[in-house]
Amino acid sequence: MSHRSGFVCLVGRPNAGKSTLTNALVGHKVAITSGRPQTTRHTVRGIVHREDAQLVLVDTPGLHRPRTLLGERLNDLVRDTLTEVDVVGFCLPADQKIGPGDRYIAEQLARMTPEGRPGTPVVAIVTKADLVPKGRLAEQLMAVDRLGAWADIVPVSAQDGYQVDVLTDVLVSHLPEGPALYPEGELTDEPEQVMVAELVREAALEGVRDELPHSLAVVVDEIVPRERPTADGTPMLDVRVHLFVERDSQKAIVIGRAGARLRDVGTRARGQIEALLGARVFLDLHVKVAKDWQRDPKQLGRLGF
Ligand SMILES: Nc1nc2c(ncn2[C@@H]2O[C@H](COP(=O)(O)OP(=O)(O)OP(=O)(O)O)[C@@H](O)[C@H]2O)c(=O)[nH]1
After folding, report:
1. Quick one: 166 and 198 in the same domain?
2. ipTM of the complex
3. Which pLDDT belongs to residue 261?
4. Is the pTM of this model over 0.80?
């Protein structure tokens, strides 16, 4: 039996369902999903292991029009990623009309093919199929077909699992023959620190996303094991984290009255970090104002962008 392996990158405008689809394909939670755009700042990989194939998924940040330096960097990252993968999956939600954001991405994809090289196949994925009746889905498939030259078009629902296997087969069919690239059981090669930062960011944004749209960056300074475990022998980790906001008013929102909100954020994030790391965690959160960090290359460097 031949074996195929390679990299797949999911692109699509913010909220198109890329993270949720990554989780559905991999079958475990690896990327952090959310109801709001642009929470996926880092490239997180999930790996689908099969007898006949290994598919390494790269979940990119939302490809969007650059507005700030941060945006430009994200787009560079997206473009670099695109030229390094074997297949691109372009996600378009079934329940929304094709808009300027989708057209922009379609143009970028059309332009992506390096000169003199055969292009990376692009599979158009119509996501959230569960949200529309069959007739609307058929119309959307036709509209997507007119949008570009796709290797395949597949409707899926990550929510109820509709066609997720079909999509896996289609993506695998576009991979080159080759051995497994990662040992089985490996779900993500993201460093733990990035996952921890995402969990803190999620907790800190909960309920205040409208007030802090893109103004919150989270940096994990260190994760250090305590020399002496807890009384019952469980290992204990000290996790020190900085949350950067742009303005004093945003700092006040994150911290809350008499620090109540930040304590809440800490409690929620700690539970998830403990589950992730399999240890008791002492979580130390600091909130700092880093003015206009989105526009300052030095700050961006410090924050890992
Ligand atoms: N009903 C339904 N909702 C979905 C499905 N897939 C994703 N969603 C929802 O759509 C929203 C966005 O999904 P994400 O997976 O976070 O989208 P994303 O493209 O990764 O978003 P960014 O991280 O902003 O780029 C979330 O509220 C999901 O719960 C689906 O198959 N069906």
Report:
1. no
2. 0.97
3. 95
4. no
